[in-house]
Write a structure and sequence with these properties.
913 residues, Transferase(Phosphotransferase), domain 1, Phosphorylase Kinase, domain 1, mainly alpha, seven-stranded antiparallel sheet, single chain
Length: 913
């Protein structure tokens, strides 16, 4: 509370003009002595607040009139929070611009620091709100916002990505661009603005000065949202807006709100400037000037497009940037644009452009008869074509549709079946065979990750470019291919690239796909799968359910694509802990695939893997082993050893062996899978991290708690980098770190990790989710060791009741929670009930587990401790002796659990004597 209050006062102080700060500070110290003294110390220690810092949670003040323009000039070496000024590079309407660098050593980065030439109350709140909006922008043509803040000398400032290159005007003077190149350049700018509009962000100050061209010719549009920061005062504060009138929409110049329509107007102005070099206010983009600029016969169309974009009334303009770009696309294809009158002469001109050979022949024949006869001939050809088309239209349309679908199916299948990780493996092996030895130690090179990066840059990116080129006139074919590409990107862990690809897919579908076309439901499914990969489980479930319903309507319930959607819905039910619903979906999918695809098809085998995995999660180990062995054999026969599905089946079978007590077999399987995943996917891929986690579990079971903790920490670090703190995989790795530390005896650090994991899983998955119960169970163990019986018992009761209801009394997980509850009862002093519960758990475990399973020894040890607490020493020693013999027979002699039992047995025996 104190920190938030002082932060709020500091913001108020920094927002004031420098001349008013001393008087305000004196009043504050009289009114709030304690907070005032802390504030003075904070002001002395730091002159800057960065508004993206989470410590500044609530900002004060309401918008009032501008009070003073900041005139402080920064010099090289000046600090603004973590940023250091290198040099001044210019001055614009908003204030001075500096080149800067990160000064605190957190990372190396050049930035552009932009002063906002004003101070007023409420600016901090506005800055923070705008910055959080701008942080949503993720487009290659948008300059990224890095930070923002307030400084008591320099005032408010923005920190932007530094963009090497040239200003647009200077670049155009250097490069002699034809019409096509200029339109392509404009489309890059417009697509960046469209990306922002999709995220409810308006630029508000589109002009040549805010466009920069990088060395590779790509575009960077700068200063998103700055106009809103400068335009938040009264309407007559023209000096604050720093707008360029020639590129500002009429409503902006009048002081009205900035809207997406304002950006459409500004883009029209920018297009006119790009084509003629003239200010839009001069209206030099009309026919004569466009003709002179080398644009030729398309001048009228371009003038009409610009006039539409720059209509006085916002409602008369293009309704969106996509509509604007649509007309430009039609212009480049020599198709009729929407803003031109649909006259016969105009349509004839377009026909000539699209069919020069045909019209050339007609023209040669009828040239002597004059142009009028050419037009008449064209109209006759059109009429004859229409008559013939009427007879064959249906057959032709059906044939074209079949051909297009076959092309899309073939290309998508080819792309989907490319084993990209396997390609990386082959390249790696060829390099090694050629004698290349990658450096080790500190200079270690992860060759697979390097090759996967090259695949993205030189294969997947080329795929996008090729798709754009060859299927420009077949948008639905293009959609199918891009969806396959997004799936490949997702499987490689390239989630941001996949999201960008799906954004393109969504735009194409909106423009071209009928309401019930299958590609719509494929797009929904791909988006749902991406949401699932990034931890948005509820949203993923909803999207995949919509995709399944849509495919049932469009394709039928037995279509392979419908079955795939049903399988993915089952996976989301499984992720959310709804196992009965998951099993129902998996069995329906397997039944359909057996009927449609056959027993040896990879998709049928995948359904077997799904059922085996689900039985494993339920600790139904015999059923799990049966399904997994069948799936593994099938994958090895159809896909080979070095395939991810083979690796996944192998990994899950290793977990089954571990839980069955077949530890050496489990260790071999998990080590094999980790090596396979690391080679196929690289060290930081989610599947590799998951395999590392499984190796950690084996070390934990074998008593190598420190080694297990190290594997878990590596996985935790990788997941945090990939997903952040609140992802299920991150929380699982953190829970495992806590468990290993607890077993190693580091109870305080273990409690820290387990509490974080438990809280995160409750928030994300709910308090009854199986994963949440695992974290709670380990936390119970820590609390028992610390003697906190009441808190341990509350958690243990909850775990036992939920597992009893979901899994039944005889499930191994229920029995673990039953023994844990017995220990909590013992520490809480409820000794009679503790003895009854631990005895029941041991007796049930003896019926469920193999007679030599090491886990049975843990239940017997719990019973022995309950007997000792009741004062029944001889019975306790006898049970502990049996537990020690059982553990010694199934675990190593130096296993910590075996050593602990031996030590307790010696102490108890000596004490009893």
């Amino acid at each position: 509370m104190r920190r938030r209050a002082v932060d709020r006062l500091l913001i108020d102080y920094l927002e004031l003009p420098e001349s008013e700060q001393p008087a305000w500070l004196a009043r504050t110290r009289r009114r709030l002595p304690r907070l005032g003294s802390w504030l003075v110390q904070l002001i002395d220690d730091s002159h800057t607040v960065t508004l993206l810092d989470e410590s500044v949670r609530r900002l004060a003040g309401q918008s009032v009139d501008r009070m003073e323009i900041s005139v402080t000039r920064l010099v090289s070496g000046d600090r603004l929070g973590p940023w250091k000024v290198i040099e001044e590079v210019g001055q614009g309407g908003m204030g001075r611009v500096y080149r800067g660098q990160r000064a605190d050593g957190a990372f190396e980065m050049d930035v552009a620091i932009k002063q906002i030439g004003q101070r007023r109350r409420g600016l901090a709140e506005l800055l923070q709100r705008e910055c959080r909006l701008l942080a949503k922008l993720d487009h290659p043509s948008v300059t990224r916002l890095v930070d923002a803040g307030l400084d008591d000398r320099a005032g408010p400032f923005l920190v932007m990505e530094w963009v090497e290159g040239m200003d647009l005007a200077d670049w155009l003077k250097q490069e002699k661009l034809d019409l096509v190149r200029r339109l392509e350049l404009f489309e890059q700018i417009a697509e960046a603005v469209a990306h922002a509009h999709q995220r409810l962000i308006v630029h508000g100050d589109i002009k040549p000065d805010n466009v920069r061209i990088r060395d590779d010719g790509s575009v960077k549009l700068m200063d998103f949202g700055v106009a809103r920061l400068l335009d938040s005062g009264e309407a007559d504060q023209a000096g604050l807006r720093a707008l360029t009138p020639a590129f500002a929409a009429p409503e902006q110049r009048a002081g009205d709100d900035i809207t997406p329509a304002s950006d459409v107007w500004a883009l029209g102005a920018l297009l006119a400037w790009l084509l003629t070099g003239a200010s839009p206010s001069e209206k030099r983009y009309t026919n004569p000037s466009l003709q002179k600029s080398g644009i030729g016969l398309r001048n009228q169309e371009l003038a009409a497009i610009i006039d539409k974009a720059q209509a006085e009334a916002p409602t008369a303009r293009y309704s969106s940037i996509d509509e604007f770009l649509g007309d430009l696309t039609r212009l480049r294809r020599h198709e009729a644009v929407s803003v031109m009158p649909a006259t016969s002469a105009y349509r004839f001109g377009k026909f000539v452009r699209r069919n020069p050979t045909l019209v050339g022949g007609i023209g040669a024949t009828f040239l002597a008869l004059g142009v009028g006869l050419v037009i008449a001939a064209w109209m006759y050809v059109q009429a004859e074509h229409a008559r013939v088309s009427a007879d064959i239209a249906r057959e032709q349309a059906e044939a074209n549709a079949r051909e297009t679908e076959q092309v899309a199916d073939f290309q998508a299948r080819q792309m989907g079946e490319i084993n990209l990780p396997g390609l990386a493996l082959d390249l790696r092996e060829q390099l090694l065979d050629a004698g290349f030895e990658p450096p080790s130690g500190e200079n270690h090179i992860d060759l697979t990750e390097l090759l996967l990066g090259l695949i993205q840059d030189h294969l997947l990116s080329v795929t996008v470019a090729t798709t754009d080129s060859y299927f420009a006139n077949q948008p639905l074919v293009k959609v199918r291919l891009l969806q396959s590409l997004a799936g490949s990107q997702r499987s490689l862990g390239l989630y941001e690239r996949a999201a960008q690809t799906l954004d393109t897919v969504d735009r194409l579908i909106t423009e071209h796909a009928p309401a019930e076309h299958p590609v719509r439901f494929a797009a929904i499914l791909h988006r749902g799968l991406l949401e699932a990969e990034t931890g948005e489980l509820e949203q993923a479930l909803e999207l995949i359910g919509l995709a399944l319903d849509g495919r049932k309507r469009a394709l039928g319930p037995k279509h392979p694509d419908t079955l795939t959607a049903g399988r993915e819905l089952g996976r989301q039910f499984q992720n959310l802990g709804q196992h009965d619903k998951a099993e129902s979906r998996y069995r329906q999918t397997l039944k359909g695939r057996l009927a449609v695809l056959g027993e040896e098809h990879p998709e049928t085998l995948l359904s077997m893997l799904d059922l085996g995995t689900l039985h494993l999660i339920r600790h139904e180990l015999d059923q799990a082993e049966e399904w997994l062995v069948q799936a593994l054999a099938g994958f090895r026969g159809t896909l080979g050893t070095n395939h991810l599905r083979t690796a996944n089946a192998l990994a899950n079978l290793g977990v089954v062996y571990r839980r069955q007590g077949r530890l050496e077999e489990a260790r071999q399987k998990n080590a094999e899978v980790l090596e396979l995943h690391a080679v196929l996917l690289g060290n930081n891929h989610p599947d590799t991290l998951r395999s590392r986690n499984n190796v950690g579990v084996i070390h934990q079971v074998q008593g190598d708690y420190a080694v297990a903790a190290q594997h878990y920490r590596t996985a935790l670090q990788g997941y945090r980098q990939l997903y952040g703190e609140r992802h299920p995989e991150t929380l699982n790795a953190r829970s495992n770190v806590g468990t290993a530390l607890y077993l190693h005896g580091d109870h305080d650090e273990a409690q820290h990790h387990l509490e974080l994991a438990t809280e995160g899983r409750i928030e994300l998955l709910g308090e009854e989710h199986p994963a949440t119960l695992v974290s709670m169970g380990a936390l119970v163990g820590v609390l028992v060791e610390q003697g906190n019986g009441e808190q341990a018992l509350a958690l243990a009761d909850h775990i036992y009741q939920v597992r009893l209801q979901l899994l039944g009394e005889a499930n191994p997980q229920t029995l673990i929670s039953m023994s844990g509850r017995g220990s909590a009862l013992r520490v809480a002093g409820q000794l009679t009930e503790a003895l009854a519960v631990t005895r029941q758990a041991f007796e049930l475990a003896s019926q469920v587990l193999p007679e030599n399973h090491w886990r049975l020894a843990t239940h017997q040890a719990h019973l022995a401790r309950a007997l000792k607490a009741k004062g029944r020493e001889e019975e306790a020693i006898a049970e502990l002796q049996l537990a020690h013999e059982l553990a010694s027979g199934s675990l190593r002699d130096d296993h910590p659990f075996v050593l602990k039992l031996a030590a307790d047995l010696a102490n108890w025996t000596e004490g009893n004597h």
